[in-house]
Design goal:
about 15% strand, alpha+beta
Length: about 400
């Protein structure tokens, strides 16, 4: 499977300037290619092919005085910018024609130098390399120091250099990895995601919700107030913008670190993991939107999924319409309406349930029932509607 490994870069002033030039050239080529295709569409001309577009906005553009400075950066950076544009167009066309599943994809938009994220990609053709001293050698940029937090499992096929809103530089490598099965265990777990507790496990454990954004709200509010008092275009405003970006980056890094550690712990200790397929996008439209987005459920579940695949574990999502909270895990009866304020309830059979633990137990049971047997068939057959001509008892029969 393919994975992405990210490391922090520490370029010096000269290398930062060279990277800024690469970001700018890639952005200009992308925008020139997008403008050429839009102009052709508005004029009723045929769609500009990938090869023709590369010839216009790179090869021929370098010969003009207006774009001669494109030759100061690696040609691979410019080609990859066009590759990103072509991939965006293909996804857009597949989306509007129904060939792509999921939400609709918007048509490509122009890139801005004010975007929070700037990136360029180097492939094997660019001849990037890692030196014996552990530095990343990039064409026309130099040897950039890297903080290697962990070793690369294999030779990377490409590297993307990213600059985030906080001004930090990262190297993102795409590598091929093999599955590394962990020792088998008999433990299985169902996970109920929530806001009071981030996760409640079917074994009764509760993981508190860190609420990283809420904890940093005072610091963020102060930074935003300081930003609002600065004059547009001033040096102090640039400093204030950077301070706000660093504060938000700290929150995002803490949330990502928490999700990584928790997902690794769960995958390591359990042979099978089952979670509910929540509609996070729908929940983000409610009055709980800020809390839902602060929790970061989608990223956490995504980590569980790819780590289960990598380490030989079973992972499955339960249908979002499954009444995990309202179903009694003892007798199977489904209760009536149950608002979020109800944290514990008593079933007619006499069983007293904690809402989160009961939901996690039901998710575990549903996940086990939906697993396929050795022949590839579901353990629990799907429900079917009886046909009119099927044999059965008639109305009025004793």
């Amino acid at each position: 499977m393919r994975l992405r490994y990210r490391y922090r870069l520490y370029p010096d002033a000269t290398q930062c300037q060279a990277l800024a030039k690469a970001f700018g050239c890639a952005r200009v080529v992308f925008n020139d290619g997008l403008r050429a295709r839009q102009t052709a569409y508005e004029a009723g001309l045929p769609y500009v092919s990938d090869g023709e577009l590369s010839k216009r906005v790179i090869t021929e553009a370098k010969q003009t005085p207006e774009r001669a400075w494109l030759g100061e950066v690696s040609a691979v950076v410019l080609q990859q910018a066009l590759a990103d544009l072509n991939a965006t167009y293909r996804a857009f066309f597949a989306s509007i024609t129904g060939g792509r599943k999921g939400p609709k994809i918007a048509e490509p938009r122009f890139r801005s130098k004010k975007d929070n994220r700037q990136a360029v990609r180097f492939t094997k053709n660019a001849r990037f390399s890692i030196t014996a001293g552990g530095r990343l050698r990039l064409p026309k940029i130099g040897e950039v120091p890297v903080r290697w937090s962990r070793p690369l499992p294999s030779d990377p096929s490409s590297v993307t250099v990213v600059k985030d809103a906080a001004g930090r530089h990262f190297a993102s490598f795409v590598v091929e990895t093999t599955s590394e099965p962990l020792p088998e265990t008999t433990a299985e777990v169902g996970i109920d995601l929530g806001l009071t507790h981030f996760t409640v496990l079917s074994d009764g454990r509760r993981i508190g919700n860190p609420r990283f954004l809420r904890r940093a709200a005072k610091k963020l509010r102060k930074a935003h107030k300081a930003l609002s008092r600065t004059a547009k275009g001033s040096a102090n405003r640039k400093k204030a913008v950077a301070k706000v970006a660093r504060a938000h980056a700290h929150v995002a890094d803490a949330r990502r670190d928490f999700a990584h550690k928790l997902s690794t712990s769960i995958i390591r200790d359990n042979q099978a993991v089952y979670v509910e397929n929540l509609s996070v996008k729908g929940l983000a439209r409610t009055r709980l939107a800020r809390s839902v987005q602060d929790a970061g459920w989608s990223r956490f579940v995504g980590m569980l999924e790819y780590k289960a695949k990598r380490y030989g574990r079973t992972f499955a999502r339960i249908d979002r319409w499954f009444p995990s909270s309202k179903r009694c895990s003892a007798c199977g009866a489904v209760a009536g309406s149950m608002p979020l304020s109800v944290r514990s309830w008593t079933c007619a059979c006499g069983a007293v349930h904690d809402r989160g633990v009961n939901a996690a137990i039901n998710i575990l049971a549903a996940g086990r029932a939906d697993r396929r047997n050795a022949c590839g068939d579901p353990v629990r057959p799907p429900l079917e509607v009886a046909q009119v001509d099927e044999a059965g008892s008639h109305r009025g029969a004793a």
